[in-house]
Design a protein that fits this description.
Distance between the termini: 44 Å
Bound molecules: guanosine-5'-monophosphate
Largest sheet: 5 strands, antiparallel
Strand content: 15-25%
Radius of gyration: 14 Å
CATH superfamily: HIT-like
Number of helices: 2
CATH class: Alpha Beta
CATH topology: HIT family, subunit A
Number of domains: 1
Strand order of the largest sheet: 1-2-3-5-4
Shape: globular
Number of strands: 5
């Protein structure tokens, strides 16, 4: 039997990102399709700072092996499509997936940061 992603949904309290997906909380949405929603970060760290989240919930990218490739693939494609919509492809952009405590993940709903619009430092702190 094929295991579907929904069987792996982590039981947890609704996060702010669950509420944005459900349309219960306002967000400045810049791109969306049937797999992802992309919206501006409330506390931008660069001129362009957008968060991309899959509609199919998971806590962090660490759970990717337990999800189907379609969910993960559409999430990554959603990141690229959101960046395309933001017209940052030519100058470039950074994609960040903070994962777990040491990486300072503060919202337990997987989200990719798209950071762009200025020259970025490396390595990150
Ligand atoms: P993390 O630190 O978990 O990788 O990133 C969480 C991000 O969510 C932070 O950059 C933070 O500014 C952003 N954030 C937290 N609450 C809200 C909110 O209510 N709306 C939006 N648009 N972004 C939020």
């Amino acid at each position: 039997m094929r295991i579907t992603a929904s069987q792996y949904h982590t039981p947890m309290e609704d996060t702010i990102f669950d509420r944005i997906i459900a349309g219960e909380m306002d967000a400045d949405i810049v791109y969306e399709d049937d797999a992802v929603v992309a919206f501006r970060d409330i506390s931008p760290q660069a001129p362009i700072h957008v968060l991309v989240i899959p509609r199919n919930r998971m806590q962090s990218i660490a759970e990717a092996p337990e999800h189907d490739a379609e969910t993960i693939g559409r999430f990554m494609q959603g990141v690229a499509l959101a960046a395309r919509k933001l017209e940052v492809e030519e100058n470039g952009y950074r994609v960040v997936l903070n994962t777990g405590r040491d990486a300072l993940q503060t919202v337990p709903y997987v989200h990719a940061h798209i950071i762009a619009g200025r020259k970025l430092g490396w390595p990150p702190g």
